[in-house]
Design brief:
The protein is of the alpha/beta class. The chain contains 15 helices and 21 strands. The chain has 2 domains: about 180 residues, Rossmann fold (3-Layer(aba) Sandwich); about 210 residues, CoaB-like (Rossmann fold), CATH 3.40.50.10300. The protein binds ligand PMT.
Length: about 425
């Protein structure tokens, strides 16, 4: 049975030639047991008569923000909230720009900011419009806001030009919506090539182990979950990812190059070997110190009492990457700050000292199970200020960070 069975899809039809494909989309959704409520923009009505959608969907078609009858039958808030999926197809440059800017001057754009769902945009436009800098900015903004994108693909346009901008076919839209409902992939990363296509990323994860002797070591409670989730999210967004990991019990995410290390010095060497990169994310809990006088043999209990361990400072990998000369430094250096007090102030100190672009600050205080747990509560600290995120499963925090990274890289271009 299709994941769409029993679902209600709010289909916002924009004004483009590809609107005709949405008639078939309504049919395909109905075949899978989904109900479609159609909202048309004024421009969409220039291409298709509302009656065609009403006949195929068996539902009233909505197009007027100020219709008294519609508001008494079903208010626009209810229209947007009572749907399981909000799909914009064809998503024109105009609708995308309105959504990115939060405009609400007709029913379609009002619904997009009134909804409690993450809208899914199915773009269709001329190749020049799709490649235009303003459209790229708007798409990046919507992706960063958590919206999904299905397509566009390359192909011949109704205007005779060839290139990216062509709307994907109704059956591909249906398959994309089913994938979203299965939640096997984050919505925003379903855009085909992905926003980080062509970018190289290095992510460090897990603890390091600093030997005391061949069988003992100093380490910490990092499980690697947060770093591995970040590597997975960046790879899903299209990046070529090298994950430099300390000893953990996790398997490498699909499509990620894994470099296993034990000590901080090995981690530094592995990071240097993986450079150059566009993005560096230091999620590893690197031991600040190592034992200077680590024994080559197992230390024995004896009359001399407990051994005296002499500690020396480990290299700071994040700081080394942050201070690389401009030609070799990743465009975006993302550090972490694991703090038990003064979260933002300490993170800001690390931002400056280690020359990062962003610091992901997490409070790892005693009653907080971030080390080893499945959730994280993050504050993003950068030169602009501090942005507190809600508590999220580490996978979702990673996806949100991947979107932020894509946006920041886009802004640096
Ligand atoms: O692995 P999990 O169980 O999922 O837990 C996730 C986490 C708590 C480990 C993660 O969210 C986190 O906070 N990672 C950073 C832990 C840490 O070592 O923080 P710090 O404040 O001590 O270090 C600041 C930054 O400098 C970090 O980016 C760290 O990777 C880096 N660093 C620190 C020391 C050092 N010698 N080299 C470094 O690169």
């Amino acid at each position: 049975m299709s994941k769409l069975s029993g679902k209600t899809v709010l289909l916002i039809v924009g004004g483009g030639v590809a609107a005709y494909k949405c008639l078939d989309l309504v049919r395909r959704l109905a075949e899978r047991g989904a109900k479609t409520r159609v909202v048309m923009t004024a421009a969409a009505r220039q291409f298709i008569a509302p009656l065609a959608f009403a006949s195929l969907s068996g539902e009233k078609v909505y197009d007027d923000l100020f219709s008294l009858t519609d508001e008494t039958e079903m208010g626009h808030i209810e229209l947007s909230r009572s749907s399981d999926l909000v799909v914009v197809a064809p998503a024109t440059a105009d609708l995308i720009a309105k959504a990115a800017g939060g405009l609400a001057n007709d029913l379609a754009s009002t619904l997009l900011i009134a909804t409690d769902k993450q809208p899914i945009f199915v773009p269709a436009m001329n190749v020049r419009m799709w490649l235009n800098a303003a459209t790229a900015r708007n798409v990046a903004q919507l992706r960063a806001d958590g919206c999904g994108f299905l397509g566009p693909v390359e192909g011949e346009m109704a205007c005779g030009e060839f290139g990216p901008g062509r709307m994907i076919e109704p059956l591909e839209i249906v398959a994309g919506l089913e994938r979203i409902l299965e939640q096997t992939q984050p919505q925003a990363l379903l855009a085909g090539p992905g926003p980080l296509k062509g970018k190289r990323a290095i992510v460090t994860a897990g603890p390091t182990q600093e030997p005391i002797d061949p069988v003992r070591y100093i380490s910490n409670k990092s499980s690697g979950k947060q770093g591995y989730a970040i590597a997975a999210a960046l790879a899903q967004a299209g990046a070529d990812v090298t994950l430099v990991s300390g000893p953990v019990g996790l398997t490498a995410p699909a499509g990620v190059r894994l470099s296993k290390v034990e000590t901080a010095r090995e981690m530094l060497a592995a990071v240097e070997a993986a450079l150059p990169a566009d993005v560096y994310v230091g999620a590893a809990a690197v031991a600040d110190w190592r034992v200077e006088n680590a024994g080559a043999r197992k230390t024995k209990k004896g009359a001399k009492g407990p051994p005296q361990l002499s500690l020396v400072e480990n290299p700071d990998i994040l700081s080394a990457v942050g201070h690389l000369p401009a030609k070799r430094r990743p465009a975006l250096v993302v550090g972490f700050a694991a703090e038990t007090e003064n979260l933002v102030a300490n993170a800001r100190g690390k931002l400056q000292r280690k020359k990062c672009d962003l610091v992901v600050a997490n409070d790892v205080g005693a009653d907080n199970a971030i080390f080893g747990g499945d959730h994280n509560t993050i504050v993003i600290v950068d030169a602009r200020g501090a942005d507190a995120w809600p508590a999220l499963p580490k996978r979702e925090a990673a996806q949100r960070l991947a979107r932020l990274i894509a946006t920041r890289l886009e802004q640096k271009r």
